[in-house]
Amino acid sequence: MGVLADMTWPQVKDELKEIRVALIPVGATEQHGHHMPLGSDSYCAFEVARRTADKEKALVVPAIPFGISHCHMSFPGTVTLSCDTLARVITDICSSLYAHGVDKFIFINGHGHNGPTIATAMDEFKKDKEVFMFVIPWWIAGGRLTKELWDFSGGNLPDGHAADIETSGMLAINEALVDMNKADKVVLGALAGTRIKFNKSTAVTLGDYPVELATISDFKQFTESGVIGGALQASRDKGEKVLEAVTDFLAELIRELKKV
Amino acid sequence: MGVLADMTWPQVKDELKEIRVALIPVGATEQHGHHMPLGSDSYCAFEVARRTADKEKALVVPAIPFGISHCHMSFPGTVTLSCDTLARVITDICSSLYAHGVDKFIFINGHGHNGPTIATAMDEFKKDKEVFMFVIPWWIAGGRLTKELWDFSGGNLPDGHAADIETSGMLAINEALVDMNKADKVVLGALAGTRIKFNKSTAVTLGDYPVELATISDFKQFTESGVIGGALQASRDKGEKVLEAVTDFLAELIRELKKV
Amino acid sequence: MGVLADMTWPQVKDELKEIRVALIPVGATEQHGHHMPLGSDSYCAFEVARRTADKEKALVVPAIPFGISHCHMSFPGTVTLSCDTLARVITDICSSLYAHGVDKFIFINGHGHNGPTIATAMDEFKKDKEVFMFVIPWWIAGGRLTKELWDFSGGNLPDGHAADIETSGMLAINEALVDMNKADKVVLGALAGTRIKFNKSTAVTLGDYPVELATISDFKQFTESGVIGGALQASRDKGEKVLEAVTDFLAELIRELKKV
Amino acid sequence: MGVLADMTWPQVKDELKEIRVALIPVGATEQHGHHMPLGSDSYCAFEVARRTADKEKALVVPAIPFGISHCHMSFPGTVTLSCDTLARVITDICSSLYAHGVDKFIFINGHGHNGPTIATAMDEFKKDKEVFMFVIPWWIAGGRLTKELWDFSGGNLPDGHAADIETSGMLAINEALVDMNKADKVVLGALAGTRIKFNKSTAVTLGDYPVELATISDFKQFTESGVIGGALQASRDKGEKVLEAVTDFLAELIRELKKV
Amino acid sequence: MGVLADMTWPQVKDELKEIRVALIPVGATEQHGHHMPLGSDSYCAFEVARRTADKEKALVVPAIPFGISHCHMSFPGTVTLSCDTLARVITDICSSLYAHGVDKFIFINGHGHNGPTIATAMDEFKKDKEVFMFVIPWWIAGGRLTKELWDFSGGNLPDGHAADIETSGMLAINEALVDMNKADKVVLGALAGTRIKFNKSTAVTLGDYPVELATISDFKQFTESGVIGGALQASRDKGEKVLEAVTDFLAELIRELKKV
Amino acid sequence: MGVLADMTWPQVKDELKEIRVALIPVGATEQHGHHMPLGSDSYCAFEVARRTADKEKALVVPAIPFGISHCHMSFPGTVTLSCDTLARVITDICSSLYAHGVDKFIFINGHGHNGPTIATAMDEFKKDKEVFMFVIPWWIAGGRLTKELWDFSGGNLPDGHAADIETSGMLAINEALVDMNKADKVVLGALAGTRIKFNKSTAVTLGDYPVELATISDFKQFTESGVIGGALQASRDKGEKVLEAVTDFLAELIRELKKV
Question: pLDDT for A136-169, tens place per residue?
């Protein structure tokens, strides 16, 4: 198993003799369209960690339930941490685990905007320490490992926000929390009447140049429902497959790290 | 219902038209003896909030799963935040909710050492705002509301650490995570060979004076198992009763606040 | 003696060979009704420390003359520190003293709202150090040690703000700074038209439940004069007695700590 | 023109009437192998900005000459800022420019590890402001726009550290500061004896999985000279071409933004 | 009068109708040789403020009793704040007073090393506010205003540390706290065997160049007693004169500021 | 040579075997009247460092191109850092260099308002380290070393802002960036209709008292062009002379420090 919240300290003590790998899910409490709940990113990140640890033992830390969600604040219920706050939370968690002997940290990121903050926290933490730190955005990695399942054509963006991959994952985890009748598809357009075109919420193209460079300030300007990309082709079955693929991969990563 | 993580943003939007009260569970990931899991404080705080909202509608924020647990760091698996980090998390959550219209905040505290940090965060947040902020340590309040259930004699300290009240609560919430065969009772003694005697982990008596004034640095110096007080008289039935009492009280508090 | 501000460094050096206990008065500059000066909390906390050190040698640090007084800012002259600022001051003082060999710290708190901040500062400072840290709100402790002197009936709250205990203390310390003709009595009522009733400025009762849970944002909403509780029964004699009792207690505490 | 450091304030005042776009070069002072100077990232980022502004008017802010270079500290002369420090510098620059009317910010990033910090600073800055913020790592964007020039085969990594693209750029900017006789090629291998293989300094592959997820703590463990990838195929001519391509692109971007 | 700590809030309210000038003494708790107490800087700064307010009404804030004393930490009893902590204290005090209507702030600095921190705090505070802020190191200003009293020859440095001016001031304020039999004279020499010569603790000369540029890290390396300069010519009479001169000057300054 | 940005890391490694002195230019991006560019302070500080290192080997760090320029923000193009930000940049630079073995730090300050922040950063950095830290405002030191060149009469203030010394220095460094036809002379007057008179931007006199004590909040209130003092007598020749004098002095200082 390895779910920290469900273990006693003597059980953790025993487990740490063998393994020194922690999985740290980083979630969010933010709008996910009309069809998915606000806790989707936390539920998914935690479940990816939990299923991974079932395949290859590792400590599963409680999911950080809040992330960097400034650009979703126009949608009621969204909770956002400042980048500084989240970085401190991550640092304190890593320091605590490191004190107990953990030296391999794998962040299971459930929300794109958390990425830079996790990266800066890692950059500071690893100074002067012999540690291995990884971060994996589960839906990006999962999406690449199951390319055949997803339709990337015409702005469908299955790895967008509350789109096919996330929706499928959530369906597999807790179908009751998803209402596919309210699923939406939103194709991103151009930036404020220019030739600068979005190809996802944090990237644009200009002319023929396939160069990533932008960031959206307020999702409300781009999507009424909150979805970016298409969620209409999601299914529980696809969700099981993408979770299977990404947890296989993570289990393999843990196995390799245990050799070090 | 009102569990934020399980709602969509349009559902939150609707609910905020009627109610502007948020319940914020503050937990911990820290040792709770040989018989209780590390996530006990988070599980209990969240469940108190959830059951309260079932009685009287309110928004239930995801539990903050980490708290101020410095003095438990000798026990493997404990994760501790600095007071500053936790204060920032609380502030960011309150700021986000306030932006959506929430102006009544009730912190359901699951861990004693979080108290001062919640208090300082509240003190700063409420400056220049018309808000109502409350904090309730569920096991203290619950314990007082069900005095007849608990044995306070001879250092049994049912409101100690991983003691009767918490253990009973956890039994009511998820029996599978508690192993009563490993429950312990630890009676606190004197401080380092002096006449200063502990009457709980954050309070002492000196001579006949019933004055509170101390704090324990490292629980390991006082308890081998991690328990402080007695957990031997805990039961699921007592747990249901204490949860019932404290959630009745909180529901009543919310009802009163809705009049404002 | 032991008043740090009045000693030369060679005198401190000598004293530190024997004793390693510091008394740190934490005051405030805040309204104390029409009858008491703004410096009351600082004067009282310092005097308690000074008289204690006369009974049992200890280093008396200069009083921190500002505290957490946000909720008194409607009254001209009040100066308030942020919780973070006060915590840093406390930490820097303790670090300095610790570098000189002090390992027992007793905070003499003169103002209730300073409590949580002192607690968080202590919590952070004592990590990884072998130190003993205590905090004692002098008027609470003193009040309990001299219960027979005070009238707790009918909302008189002798341990309220600028009430009987503080007023008596200040009369004993410097009668010229108190004008008993302007002393007031203010009984707290209910919160904003609800059944939630205050039983002191940081605690309420709801229905029959004797549970503490609230905090007042702006004292102006509850008291015109600034007093909370009754100051009408204060006297210099009572002041001498409460100071005597609390300094006896503290001297005893220091004696015990010197055995460690 | 538009180089802020070379303009008087009345000239800036005039220019701001027409244009509200700032180019902010973010550099580094860090090892670039035996063949390139420590200031390479700053020189390149600034020159990209300067040449862009020659094509399409924009304010060119002085290059931030230090970046996030923790993992290069084993190499003498490297200067590193904490992520927090760099984020504050960026925020203060943006706040100052915003006060003068700039509302479009394009960061010309010269060093990969600065990326997450720039992203977090942008995320915080754009809250509650109507601004457009872009970040472009010049050598990545430039490399993609001139794919035909570079040899990506066999771990040559032309966009690695001090590799072909950067070296070519520096040759074009100031040939005297590059010693091609000392250029090196370093092919990254596996992580600590595992099957986890680097495909650049911040990315690995595991088995057949093409998933990015790792970060190197200390470059010294991977490269003796400091180079990652190959610098042997660099030339001044290629440098001119990649600078031409990326500044064409940026000028086009500015033109589009001026329409908003 | 105008001593804030001794006034009631209605008295302050009245006084603020006429005057909006605050005097903020910034002291220190640091070694002052064998002959002066650790609180000398605080006592002097506060007394200068108090005597000034007797001449021309102004609010006298309680002295900040701790300063920047890192370089005195080798001497037992010294308490030092970090520059950041002191800056925050100053900012919070000014913010509080500003909220009550004060817009002229005069810092009476009692300790040289506090100077830069006061300056940075002022620099940040006055942004976007219509305020007047002054800082006056009382012994430097006083020394210049009474040049005829002091012997500046041969490294006597009457404005050094615990030297003639400070000692005389303290004699005038509280003779009982000074032991002239233990007064010392220490002439500063050269820096670590070089031709760089100190002309006070924060300034040197090199060759014939009268240029200031250095700072001492640890006073212990330069003075056994803690004194820098000469304290042998101090007298109570000189102390009265220097206090008279500097408070006359400050009263005049307040009078001028009241015209604005 | 010794210009860090232009050296490879093996060159730095070699140089550090002999010398352990770093020159750190601290500049600004701020208005310098109609006749000088915004980068003047950075250009001058860097050039002083570079020319010094040509005379006596030392490591020349890239100039910090932004400083404390709050009071110049009314002039377009000015960029200002908070004192805290600049202090962090300085600290990070010093920590990095210290890690490589540098233990003598000379700040070449190009802008008066940076002074207090550099001082606080030094004060914190040197705690617990055996380092030598100096700061020299080049135009003040240079001005004193070449007194015969400058006209200090009648408020001409050659060491004012964008005045004769700075203008001459900039002419010597890059004549093309200075337009002497637009040079100005501004004589400071009294403060807001009082008898308080400025004798430079950070100092006043009151009555006959030659005491420094004030600071200007917004330069716009005192000077339309941005100049304070006179720039009309500047010349390239004087610039060469003042640069020669101050770099001779600094080279001598480095020579002395190398003996330690």
Answer: 999 999 999 999 999 998 889 999 999 999 999 9
Token pair listed for C183? 């002393």
pLDDT digits (tens, 9 = 90+) for E81-107: 999 999 999 999 999 999 999 999 999
Touch of B by C (3+ CB pairs closer than 8 Å): yes
The ipTM, to two decimals, is: 0.97
Measured between alpha carbons, how far is residue D201 from residues C85, D98, D136, D229, E17 in Å? 41, 35, 19, 9, 66
Measured CA to CA in angstroms, residue E182 lies from A195, D215, E133, F226 at distances of 82, 62, 38, 54
Angle, helices C115-125/B83-99, rounded to nearest 10 degrees: 130
Task: Look at residue C83 and tell me whether its pLDDT is greater than 80.
Answer: yes
F229-230 and F185-186 strand pairing? antiparallel
Helix (H) or strand (E) holding E196: strand E196-200
**Residues in chain A closer than 8 A to D193 (CB atoms):** 259-260
Round to whole Å and give the CA distance between C101 and F235: 60
Q: Are D157 and D231 in contact (CB under 8 A)?
A: no
pLDDT tens-place values along chain D, 260 residues long? 699 999 999 999 999 998 999 999 999 999 999 999 999 999 999 999 999 999 999 999 999 999 999 999 999 999 999 999 999 999 999 999 999 999 999 999 999 999 999 999 999 999 989 999 999 999 999 999 999 999 998 889 999 999 999 999 999 999 999 999 999 999 988 887 888 888 777 778 887 776 667 777 899 988 999 999 999 999 999 999 999 999 999 999 999 999 98
Question: Contact at 8 Å (CB) between E77 and C96?
Answer: no
Please give the Cα distance from B82 to B117 (Å, whole number).
9
Contact at 8 Å (CB) between A21 and A59? yes
Contact C77 E43 (CB under 8 A): no
DSSP C197: E
Helix (H, G, I), strand (E, B) or coil at F55: helix
Length of chain B: 260
E259·F207 Cβ contact <8 A:
no
Question: E256 and F196 in contact by Cβ < 8 A?
Answer: yes
Q: Which two tokens stand for residue C109?
A: 């708190």
CB contact under 8 A, D135 and A213: yes
Nearest-by-Cβ selection for C77 from E12, E63, E91 = E12
D225 touches chain F (CB under 8 A): no
Residues 6+ apart with CB under 8 A from A32: A38, A40, A41, A161, A162, A166, A226, A227, B8, B9
Query: Amino acid identity, residue F94?
Result: C
DSSP output for chain D: --BGGGS-HHHHHHHHHH--EEEEEE--B--BTTTB-TTHHHHHHHHHHHHHHHHS--EEPPPB--B--GGGTTSTT-BB--HHHHHHHHHHHHHHHHHTT--EEEEEE--GGGHHHHHHHHHHHTTTS--EEEEEEHHHHHHHHTGGG---GGG--TTSBS-HHHHHHHHHH-GGG--GGG--EE---BSTTSSEEEEETTEEEETTB-------S-GGGT-SSS-BEE-TT--HHHHHHHHHHHHHHHHHHHHHHHT-
pLDDT truncated to tens, each residue of chain F (260 aa)? Answer: 699 999 999 999 999 998 999 999 999 999 999 999 999 999 999 999 999 999 999 999 999 999 999 999 999 999 999 999 999 999 999 999 999 999 999 999 999 999 999 999 999 999 989 999 999 999 999 999 999 999 998 889 999 999 999 999 999 999 999 999 999 999 988 887 888 888 777 778 887 776 667 777 889 988 999 999 999 999 999 999 999 999 999 999 999 999 98
Residue position matching structure tokens 């970085």: A87
Indicate yes or no: CB of E78 within 8 angstroms of CB of C100.
yes
